[in-house]
Amino acid sequence: MPPVFAHGALRLYLLALLESGPKHGYELIKALKDRFGGTYSPSAGTIYPRLGKLEEEGLVATESAGRRTNYHITAAGRAELDRRRDELAGVEDGISASVRRLADGLRNDIRSNMRGIRADLAATAEAARSAAGTAEFRVPGGRIPADGVRPLKDAELMLQEFRDDLRTELRRHARNRPLDPVTLETMRTVLEQARLAIRNTLTS
52-56, 79-83, 86-90, 128-132: which range is least confident on average? Predict the structure, then answer.
């Protein structure tokens, strides 16, 4: 991933994050990671020197909170932030563009992987059809070969288990933090590609 912030832009963005209230270093790192959908997580060695420089310049101040040090923006920091609002808007645009680029890359990788999965599914389905018997059961909407009744039930159970497991994971994730745009877009792409792969296998 190319550099996210131009020279001095990260310091400006740290001021913007502190505008909403005091934060300690880990909270700032987490806020940046969340903003980038987990695709960028600055190290402590990146964040703390910049916070120290902001403190030297009088743009932030510190206060002890137990074993942690909280940083809060000063009046001079707010004035600096107000003076550079246009520049901050450009930083935000750059972040959004970075997230979109990552989502596009993920979609391309997923599509490539799904092509291989579709081929494997098609080969498996063809082998199963070749090995299936000719006996049939009457069911609403048509006939199902005798050897196909059990696999159909297994497939339906598989889909139900997948749905239930994924719903559980989503709710567990939501208790900690909301879904970020990259995760949501990745899920949408994976599910759509899986649906198309299964449909193509069934109709081939």
Answer: 128-132
Give 2's DSSP letter.
-
User: What is the reported pLDDT for 126?
Assistant: 64
Tokens coding 14: 């740290």
Kindly report, residue by residue over 82-94, the tens digit of the pLDDT.
999 888 888 888 7
Q: How far is the C-alpha of 35 from the C-alpha of 165, rounded, in Å? A: 27
Q: Where are the domains of the chain?
A: 9-83, 99-203
Residue type, 116: G
- Residue 118 tokens read as 């579709």
CA distance 6 to 91: 8
Contacts of 33 (CB under 8 A, 6+ apart): 40, 41, 42
User: Based on the number of CB atoms within 10 Å of its own CB, is 51 exposed (0-12), middle (13-18) or buried (19 or more)?
Assistant: buried
Beta bridge partners of 142: 139
The residues that bridge with 2 in the sheet, in sequence order, are: none
- The total number of residues written for the chain in this structure: 204
H or E, element range at 114:
helix 85-131
Give the 3-state DSSP-derived string for 12-65, with helices as H, strands as E and coil as C. HHHHHHHCCCCEEHHHHHHHHHHHCCCCCCCCHHHHHHHHHHHHHCCCEEEEEE
Residue 51 has pLDDT above 90, yes or no: yes
> Would you say domain 9-83 falls under CATH 3.40.50.1100?
no
Q: Which of 69-73, 99-103, 132-136 has the lowest average pLDDT?
A: 132-136
